[in-house]
Design a protein that fits this description.
Helices cover 12% and strands 55% of the residues. The chain contains three helices and twelve strands; from the N terminus they run H-H-H-E-E-E-E-E-E-E-E-E-E-E-E. Strands 1-2-3-4-5-6-7-8-10-11-12 form an eleven-stranded mixed β-barrel. A hairpin with a 5-residue loop joins strand 3 and strand 4.
Length: 294
């Protein structure tokens, strides 16, 4: 399934990389309103998952923007198995401003397979590649280097039906994250084991266009193995809390769904946590492909 969509994803990736390289020139020649319209259009080009594609952590900032385009495919006639491939970009503000499009923050390529093995239980497994610029901590906050991440994770979810229109989904997700610099050399953090615990409450707002509202809270805990200053393990502990609200709907007479939302990332011991966290605007779109018998 991953390779079926790789060509379109690579084209999108080249566009995103080009945007990163030329972002300073573009910002000087295009009004902020036009940049917002362009990125929002990219974000609103697909989505039919029951849940949104959640933004990743983009580090300490004031504001951030996340946009994802995904392709979801039914893998069986019963609708119990699905695969989702998506490409996403993130941008964020500098520490001294609130322009959420100020700096390139991340490019993500992700593929996940889901299996709903009972009416209320689901597991999934995924592979992910992430490319994330690192910036200096002092003005003018120039780009310092680029970090690459390869991620493997598994997820288990149990959903409770709370009456006719309400659902509560509780999820546990375990991740293995391996880090490299732009030349695939080792960096200060060798790899990380991270546990994520999330609860999401969903309300079926209207059957027209399958409109839904979702509120979620996710706590993240991790432990890292370090290369520098010595090869050693860090301490396991709580790292951050992500609180999100989403509006989800299907585009009429099309295979697309759109998710538009807000997330507040509360990072432990960060500068931003003293100002209410990092505030995200998110928009993602998924193109849904039904099962076709071969």
């Amino acid at each position: 399934m991953f390779f079926l969509h790789i060509n379109s994803i690579l084209i999108y990736l080249r566009i995103s990389q080009s945007f990163e390289i030329n972002s300073k020139t573009v910002i000087h020649t295009i009004e902020h309103e036009e940049i917002f319209a362009l990125l929002f259009l990219l974000g609103c080009m697909g989505a039919t998952m029951q849940a949104q594609i959640s933004p990743p952590g983009l580090g300490d900032a004031n504001n951030a923007f996340w946009s994802a385009f995904g392709v979801k495919r039914q893998l069986d006639s019963l609708g119990k198995k699905q695969a989702l491939s998506y490409l996403a970009i993130g941008r964020k503000s500098s520490p001294d401003n609130h322009n959420l499009f100020s700096k390139q923050a991340i490019i993500v390529l992700n593929h996940e397979v889901y299996h709903s093995f009972t009416p209320h239980q689901q597991y999934s497994y995924a592979l992910s590649y992430r490319r994330q610029p690192q910036y200096e901590s002092l003005p003018p906050y120039d780009k310092e280097n680029t970090e690459q991440e390869f991620r493997i994770y598994g997820r288990y979810a149990y959903t409770f039906d709370l009456g006719k229109n309400w659902k509560l989904k509780n999820t546990v997700r375990q991740e293995f994250r391996k880090f490299f610099d732009a030349g695939f050399h080792q960096v200060e953090e060798d790899f990380q084991l991270r546990t994520r615990i999330k609860s999401q409450l969903t309300y079926n707002l209207s059957p027209k266009n399958n409109q839904k509202l979702a509120l979620s809270a996710e706590a993240l805990f991790s432990i890292s193995h370090l290369n520098e200053p010595d090869s050693e393990w860090g301490s396991f502990g709580y790292r951050e809390m992500r609180i999100a609200a989403y509006y989800m709907f299907s585009i009429p007479n099309s295979p697309f769904t759109v998710d538009i939302g807000y997330m507040d990332d509360l990072i432990r011991d960060s500068r931003s946590i003293h100002h209410g966290g990092v505030h995200y605007l998110a928009a993602d779109l998924i193109w849904n492909i039904p099962y076709r018998k071969r």
